[in-house]
From TrEMBL:
Keywords: Membrane, Signal, Transmembrane, Transmembrane helix. The chain crosses the membrane at residues 74-94. It comes from the Bacteria. This is Putative membrane protein. It comes from Saccharothrix variisporea. Residues 1-30 form the signal peptide.
């Protein structure tokens, strides 16, 4: 029973990451306006298109991380995704610098969380069979 514990723990970690990605992806559709606001203006097209595209990406990543057969690729792609959305989080922190302390704390708090998310996704990748 002890030998199975690391496998079970890795599986739980992967499923927790999948749940986080899935929930975040769904919010892109349920409440898109906050996401629209942080899309860098340098990207072509409408912010809503990018909001929906990133929501689809997060839901797809959730599925890839949740499924043992695609977990290695899902973990790697999730790490890349977390790194890719960092500029939007920087933009949000900059633009929210004059907002209420609570809103600023949320915006600033997202910045240092990106690195642990990247590392978590890479750990899930390494733990995949």
């Amino acid at each position: 029973m002890g030998a199975m514990e690391p496998t079970r723990s890795r599986s739980r970690s992967a499923l927790a990451l999948a749940a986080l990605l899935g929930a975040a992806g769904v919010t892109h559709f349920a409440k898109p306006k906050p996401y629209d606001a942080i899309i860098p203006r340098s990207l072509p097209g409408k912010p809503r298109t990018w909001t929906y595209a990133s929501g689809v990406a997060e839901v797809a990543l959730a599925a890839a991380v949740a499924a043992p057969r695609t977990r290695r690729w899902g973990g790697l792609l999730a790490a890349a995704f977390f790194a890719a959305v960092f500029p939007a989080n920087v933009k949000m922190a900059y633009e929210y610098r004059t907002k209420s302390p609570k809103v600023r704390a949320i915006a600033y708090g997202r910045l240092p969380l990106q690195l642990p998310l990247v590392l978590w996704a890479l750990r899930v990748r390494r733990g995949a069979s």
